Amino acid sequence: MRALMSKRISVPWILIFVLSIVCMIPRVASAQDESKPNVVLDIAKSVLFDPTTYAPATLSYTSQRMDWKTSQALFNAGWVEHNARYTVSGRPDDKALSYEAGMRQIRHDALLHLQESIVNNVSAHIFEHALNQKYPEHRKLFKTLSWVERISFSAYVGYLASVDHFHQVTRNQELARQYGLH
């Protein structure tokens, strides 16, 4: 048991497992259930298959990983990390964490963005469902507005989570080239 717990299970495998469980849940066959779909299952499937659920976390992870990777040449040359969350002491402008510790922090941040997106998308789908129940003649409008909200949220959070890191990648590459650290 301890050997199993010591192995890290990656997030994609967990998501695949959850997705397979959700898709394989059998629906109870009865005449009464045919007219009433399983709302929770439908919302779960919608959120799991919605690309806006994963975009902010993917952008966050990719940009931070690129930033961290391009910073390594500078750290190896004695440069310090400005971001206190990535220093050994927890203070800015100090010795950087190890590469693996930094990657753990990056994965943690990406999972937080995934959590934000899941909460937003579940809320949007619940809101859309409630409006569709109350005003069934406007389903298309509510679906469109829901997509607009989810895409806007995803784009905004993804941008905020990644833009500074993508800029830092360029600065790191320029500094490494300027000081011959490649």
Index terms:
6 helices; 182 residues; 0% strand; mainly alpha
Beta-strand residue percentage? under 5%
Query: How many discrete domains?
Result: 1
Shape: elongated
Provide the helix percentage. Answer: over 70%
Number of helices: 6
Give the terminus-to-terminus CA distance: 44 Å
Number of strands: 0
Question: In this structure, how is the largest beta sheet organized?
Answer: none
Secondary-structure topology with pairs:
Blueprint: H1 2-6, H2 11-24, H3 39-49, H4 51-76, H5 99-134, H6 139-178
Helix pairs in contact: 2-3, 3-5, 4-5, 4-6, 5-6
Protein model, in words:
This protein has helices at residues 2-6, 11-24, 39-49, 51-76, 99-134, 139-178. The protein is an all-alpha fold. The chain has one domain (38-178). Mean pLDDT is 87; it is low at 1-7. The protein is elongated.
